[in-house]
Structures are given as structure tokens and as C-alpha cells.
């Protein structure tokens, strides 16, 4: 497909072209207003593209109304019918298609079993938990056997613990049914956990399309590096370039090295990124031997701890490098080592330049 959509002078979707493998879980990740919902609504047929065409299962969808496309959609606000039972909600689309009552009863029962709600046909919607309602909405869509299921931020209204649980359930459901899922979200964790492939969208275009691992470890643009996962960003000027190694100095005087992504010339303005978990922390420089980072261009940095961010296995510290006052977020070891660090304490940190990435600004 290659499509475009504009509203007056605003280009909501800018000449996008991509394909989704049959039976895969594909996510579109981006900030609010980047065009992802517009794109999804064009696939569903609720909006018409201004340019280009959409093909589903190899068939052109030009002029095909939403109710005749092999597509179903699950919204953030699930739009279940409160006056209907669970079984009537799930079987609603089948009834509209004129499927015989006995066949509807059989297929609804089978579907509810597959989404772990056996025997729930006669329950009222208001008797269900948030996660159960989510499964009913998905069952209502999948019982129609669509070629493609579109999901528009379906976990956004759930609390954090339930959202984490439903990520796993969604992934397992998609694998069990083998239906192609296209999922849009602004939550990077959802996209990374759920997806076979992710497209990072910004200003109506895809900045990068790849596996979650590729987006996280090999970002190809500064936007992707900054948007996917947590990153420490250092802006400065390239002082030396040797192969894919860039040495740079920030406006505050921090000197560091990073791996170049794309062409960078000496003197160019650059953005460097290093992830919190790529940085090693020690109470003093003696905690690092030459063998820890043999490729490092500089001795360990000295820093003062500003804040401790306790979050179990995801705990981190915020600190400032001693000479430049540059702020870094550094992940604490998951073993609990260094969990007794205190605000105001002076520590040392270092990282492998190959695990930092650098782009021309």
C-alpha cells in the first residue's frame, strides 16, 4: 500500500508505503498527532485516502465500504452493548450476517473458550472486569474470522497491572488464532513486547520499520533513538572521526565517544545517545579495570548522585558528571548490588563506545 491523507495544508499521512506479512503482529508506534489513527481508519475504510491505494489479502480496497472489508476493529473504548449479554455481544456480527441461531450459539461458545471465558454467554457486561471486557471485544471481532484485525490503543483505558497482563494475553491470542494484527499505540513497551515488527511514525511518515530488537539496539534516526526506550542524549560537535568511531565534545565540555550511524564529518553538530543499562557504575574508578571497557577512549567519569529512582529490577540513579554537570540516568544492577547508594554520594561510571550511537544533527 502507498497512501497519503491531508487536512487542508496539514499532511496527516505522507505517502506511506508498507506491507504486513500475513499472520504477523505489526505495530505502529508514535506520539499523539503523528497520523497513526488516521492511517488505521483508512485501512478500515472509515476514511478515504487522498492518494494511493490499500490492498488487503492482495485485493484492492478502493471503493469497498467498511462493512464489506475483511477487517474488524477494536477500539480503546470497547463499545460493548450494555443491554446485551456477553454471548449476544460476541454473536452480534454473526446475527447481522444472517448466520443461523444454532451456528451462532456454537461459534460464540467456542470463541469464548478460546479467550478463556468459557460459559460466560449469559453474563451481563457490567459483571465483567476490565480484562474480561477486553477479551469479549476481541472475541466479538475474531468470531467473524477477519483477514485483518485492527486495534486502536485497546489497552489505554486499563490500569497498569491489568495492562501488563493483557499484553501477554494479546500476544498469546494472536499466536493462537494466526490472524494478522495491526496495532497502534504511543506506548513503546506495548509495541516492543507484542510485535513481530514495529513502524515508528512521526509527522505522517515512518522513521524506521523493523523488529523490536532492531529499533532498540540499532536506531537509524535521532527520533527513534530518543523515542524508543530510555536514552541519555548528549548534543555536541564531532572532534574526530575514525571509521565508525566518533569523538565529540558537548557545549558543557563533556568528552565522549560513540558509534556513528550514517555519515558524520569532523566539526559537524551531532546527537549521541547511550542507554541507561549500557552504562556501568562503581563507587570509584578502582572499580573498573582496563579489561572492563578495553575499547573506551576515556577514563571513567566521576559524578555526584542527584536522585535515586527505586523501581525494583528497573531501579536507576540520576547523577551529574563532575566537570561538565551533564545529567545521566544509569540503571542499577538487577542483582541489588549498589542498592545502598545515597543521594550526594560520588561515584564513577563508564560505557563501551560501541553501545552508544551518534547521528549528525
What report would you give on this structure?
This protein has two domains: 2-220, 3-Layer(aba) Sandwich (Rossmann fold), CATH 3.40.50.300; 230-360, RNA polymerase II/Efflux pump adaptor protein, barrel-sandwich hybrid domain (OB fold (Dihydrolipoamide Acetyltransferase, E2P)), CATH 2.40.50.100. The radius of gyration is 25 Å and the shape is globular. The protein has helices at residues 36-44, 86-96, 101-114, 130-142, 160-177, 188-194, 212-217, 222-227, and strands at 2-7, 10-17, 25-29, 51-53, 55-56, 59-60, 71-75, 148-152, 180-185, 197-202, 205-210, 232-242, 245-250, 255-260, 269-274, 279-282, 301-309, 316-321, 327-331, 346-351, 356-360. By secondary structure, the chain is α+β, with helices and mostly antiparallel strands. The protein has a six-stranded mixed β-sheet, with helices on both faces. Strands 12-13-14-21-15 form a five-stranded mixed beta barrel. The two termini are 31 Å apart. A hairpin with a 5-residue loop joins strand 18 and strand 19 (327-331).
| Mean of pLDDT | 89
**Into which percentage range does the β-strand content fall?**
25-35%
Structural class: alpha+beta
Largest sheet: 6 strands, mixed
- Uncertain segments: none
Shape: globular
- Classified in CATH, the superfamily of the largest domain is P-loop containing nucleotide triphosphate hydrolases
Helix content: 10-25%
Cα end-to-end separation: 31 Å
Total beta-strand segments:
21
What count of helical segments does DSSP give?
8
CATH class call of the largest domain: Alpha Beta
CATH architecture heading of the largest domain: 3-Layer(aba) Sandwich
- Write down the Rg: 25 Å
Secondary-structure element order, N to C: EEEHEEEEHHHEHEHEEHHEEEEEEEEEE
Counted up, domains total: 2
Strand order across the largest sheet: 7-8-9-3-10-11
